[in-house]
Amino acid sequence: MSQDQDAPMIDRFGRAVTYLRVSVTDRCDFRCTYCMAENMTFLSKKDLLTLDELDRLCFAFVAKGVRKMRLTGGEPLVRKNIMHLVRLIGRHITSGHLDELTLTTNGSLLSRFGQELFDAGVRRVNVSLDTLDPQKFKEITRWGDFTKVMEGIDAAQKAGLKIKLNVVALKGFNEDDIPDMMRFAHGRGMDLTVIETMPMGEIEEDRTDRYLPLSVLRETLEKQFTFREIPFKTGGPARYVEVAETGGRMGFIKPMTHNFCEGCNRVRLTCTGVLYMCLGQNDAADLRDVLRESNDPAHLPAAIDEAIAREPKGHDFIIDRNNRPAVSRHMSMTGG
After folding, report:
1. Which residue(s) pair with 286 in the sheet?
2. What strands, in cross-sheet order, belong to the sheet with 274-276?
3. Which candidate in 111, 121, 305, 327 could, as Cys together with 93 as Cys, close a disulfide (CB 3.0–4.6 Å)?
4. What is the DSSP string of 204-244?
5. What is the DSSP letter of 44?
6. 331, 73 Cβ separation under 8 angstroms
């Protein structure tokens, strides 16, 4: 692997890494039951990279060929002064070195930050929303305010942001809600993507009770809707269909029933500077020490190259009653 600072990132399987997901915080103002324990222990603030340090790392990845970046969490908008980082990264959009800066959010703070995000160069956000039923929403998020999320979606669209709704399919909870969610999203010009629940981190419930294969969900939906496969891509693993009855797009992300790793183009950076080459594996590279202990501009690109050279072929997700989580860290740590 070349140690040239600006050499593109190509792993040992010939996959080019062009997409960086950055978890800016592990904290969240919700406690979704499939994602977090109710009484989470979060990182100490002293363990976090500063926003300027995160920017330095992001700059290094842009220099090495990343063309798309997504800010995640936890809930990214709860990070203090987060717009400072958004504006710093947004300058790469202006310069043409970055094609897209996006955000995944629960929507609770979009009414406050929607216009600022657009002004900083963000044009598209994903909003995680698992039901349109306020009572069920409270049940699944524990601490969430459904009204604030709806206000956030309104404000984001008013600001000019395109929105995609992300729905985690949960057996016995929201499979009957998804047709209405599809109509709601498509009626407002939003895409909708459904996602299989993933075995990450210890939570109070047994994930086998909630796991709903999307093949089963799709079969049920096709009794009401007509799907046509389309080649639309956003850079992530979703496979899209066009829905004849609504005219909108629906995506399916199936980490459990379809291993999409052969086309993986992304790596994940945490708020502590740890680089995970795969969502479903524990192999990682700690870039914080490299960032803080050396002023040599070649050290950080070399550390990134070494990490990319270790990228695994794929994840090993499995859900059954005899298996503990595939990885012990919660999704809020890695950022999805």
Report:
1. 274
2. 227-229, 239-243, 249-253, 191-196, 162-169, 124-128, 100-105, 68-72, 19-23, 266-269, 274-276, 284-286
3. 121
4. SS-GGGTB--HHHHHHHHTTT--EEE-----SSS-EEEEET
5. P
6. no
Pairing of strands 68-72, 191-196: unpaired
CA atoms within 13 A on the CB side of 172: 6
| Eight-class DSSP state of 327 | B
Instruction: Give 189: exposed, middle or buried? Use CB within 10 Å, 0-12, 13-18, 19+.
Output: exposed
What angle is formed at CA 218 by the lines to CA 215 and CA 221, rounded to 5 degrees?
Answer: 155
DSSP letters along 149-191, please?
A: HHHHHHHHHHHT-EEEEEEEEBTTTTTTTHHHHHHHHHHTT-E
Radius of gyration of the chain (CA): 19
- How many other CB atoms are found less than 10 A from the CB of residue 65? 16
pLDDT tier for residue 295 given thresholds of 50, 70 and 90:
confident
Match 């955000």 to its residue by tokens: 103
pTM tops 0.90? no
With bands split at pLDDT 50, 70 and 90, how would you rate the model's confidence at 328? low
Helix 146-159 with 134-141: angle, nearest 10 deg: 100
Q: How do beta strands 249-253 and 266-269 pair?
A: unpaired
Report how far Cα 232 is from the mean position of its chain's Cα atoms.
18
pLDDT for 207-230, tens place per residue? Answer: 567 789 999 999 999 999 999 999
Can you say how many angstroms the Cα of residue 98 is from the centroid of all Cα atoms in its chain? 18
Residue 150, token pair as written in the block: 């709806």
Helices 51-63, 299-308: axis angle to 10 degrees equals 70
CA gap 146, 144 in Å, rounded: 6
In terms of residues, how long is the chain?
Answer: 336
| Collapsed DSSP state (helix, strand, coil) of residue 120 | coil
Give residue 223's pLDDT.
97
Cβ contacts of 184 within 8 Å, gap of 6 or more:
132
What per-residue confidence (pLDDT) applies to 332? 53
Which tokens hold the place of 299? 């050290």
